[in-house]
């Protein structure tokens, strides 16, 4: 059972890492090249679509399986338990960033009028900060997936 839980969590972390990777490597760059009003409007539309069943299941379902896997790994404590726990913590760091940084910034962006005079300066800061912290989420999810995949092959 633990191996299947590890594989499911690894796949989930990989899916989430892929989404984050896309934002880090080309989506935010593309949005940042638009006129600020267009970039803001586009990101607002993306942010309104993001909390859908499939993405929330991948994002938070993997958080749930990470927590369960970490607990099971600690209880069983075999040779690869430490790697599973490290991977789960890595994934949960990205979730914490999502909840503490990205969601509040996305909500603040949603409240902005894209055509307002001060929106261009806010947009530049938003893109820079959001993307920088998204790189951390990307690395944490992909690293978690890699470590979990490695861990699943050890036992």
UniProtKB/TrEMBL annotation:
The keyword Transmembrane applies. Keywords: Membrane, Transmembrane, Transmembrane helix. InterPro entries: Anthrone_oxy. It holds the Pfam family Anthrone_oxy. This is Integral membrane protein. It comes from the Bacteria. It comes from Rhodococcus opacus M213. The chain crosses the membrane at residues 6-32, 53-75, 81-103.
């Amino acid at each position: 059972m633990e191996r299947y839980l590890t594989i499911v969590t690894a796949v989930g972390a990989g899916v989430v890492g892929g989404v984050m990777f896309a934002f880090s490597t080309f989506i935010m760059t593309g949005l940042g090249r638009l006129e600020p009003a267009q970039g803001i409007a586009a990101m607002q539309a993306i942010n309104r679509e993001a909390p859908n069943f499939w993405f929330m299941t991948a994002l938070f379902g993997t958080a749930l399986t990470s927590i369960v896997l970490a607990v099971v790994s600690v209880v069983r404590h075999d040779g690869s338990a430490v790697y599973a726990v490290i991977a789960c913590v890595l994934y949960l760091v990205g979730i914490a960033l999502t909840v503490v940084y990205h969601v509040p910034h996305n909500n603040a962006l949603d409240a902005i009028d894209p055509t307002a005079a001060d929106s261009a300066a806010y947009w530049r800061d938003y893109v820079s900060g959001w993307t920088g912290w998204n790189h951390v989420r990307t690395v944490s999810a992909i690293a978690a997936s890699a470590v979990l995949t490695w861990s699943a092959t050890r036992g």
